[in-house]
UniProtKB/TrEMBL annotation:
Residues the record marks as active site: 34
The species this protein was found in: Alteracholeplasma palmae (strain ATCC 49389 / J233) (Acholeplasma palmae)
GO annotation (BP), single: cellular response to oxidative stress
Protein name in the entry: Glutathione peroxidase
Origin organism lineage: Bacteria, Bacillati, Mycoplasmatota, Mollicutes, Acholeplasmatales
Similarity comment text for this entry: Belongs to the glutathione peroxidase family.
Length: 168
């Protein structure tokens, strides 16, 4: 169960995901120098719209894709706060693929090897992939800790709104 996992915050302290029990949350691997970095605005908008209804965004910077998340954990969190006014929690940098991948992301990929990806016409279609292909892959978790949806990086936060609303 997802609540069994511990992650590190930006101060390198262990934090149990049990903290989010009973909430809907979005787990995202992010980067500050990525073509999708502007999605921070949309993620913050989702957080502001739904935080009072029990919604959280969990931001996990990842430097695994073309080194697009350089800097310390604190620098990455500060960048997001100053440039995108984020108020949701940024955690310590993780790897999402390979032998050194975060156990949390291994679990998420195992639970949901199918993601929704955006077509050229803007519609969403399912794509089977266990591996995380790039930054800003998003996993939606329901109030019971179930991984219910996975979204490809090209799926913008505003496209996720209906799925969040359904769970809230």
């Amino acid at each position: 169960m997802i609540y069994d996992y511990e992650v590190k915050n930006i101060k390198q302290e262990n934090q149990s995901l049990e903290k989010y029990k009973g909430q809907v949350f979005l787990v995202v691997n992010t980067a500050t120098k990525c073509g999708y970095t502007k999605q921070y605005e949309g993620l913050e908008s989702l957080y502001q719209d739904y935080k009072d209804k029990g919604f959280e965004v969990l931001d996990f910077p990842c430097n695994q894709f073309l080194m697009q998340a350089p800097g310390s954990d604190e620098e990455l969190a500060e960048f997001c706060q100053l440039n995108y006014f984020t108020t949701f929690e940024t955690f310590s940098k993780v790897k999402v693929n390979g032998k050194d991948a975060s156990p949390l992301f291994d679990y998420l990929k195992e639970q949901l090897p199918v993601q929704l990806t955006k077509n050229k016409d803007g519609s969403l279609e399912e794509e089977t992939t266990k591996r995380i292909k790039w930054n800003f892959t998003k996993f939606l978790i329901d109030r019971n800790g179930n991984v219910v949806k996975r979204f490809a990086p090209n799926v913008t936060p505003d496209m996720i709104k209906p799925y969040i609303e359904e769970l809230l």
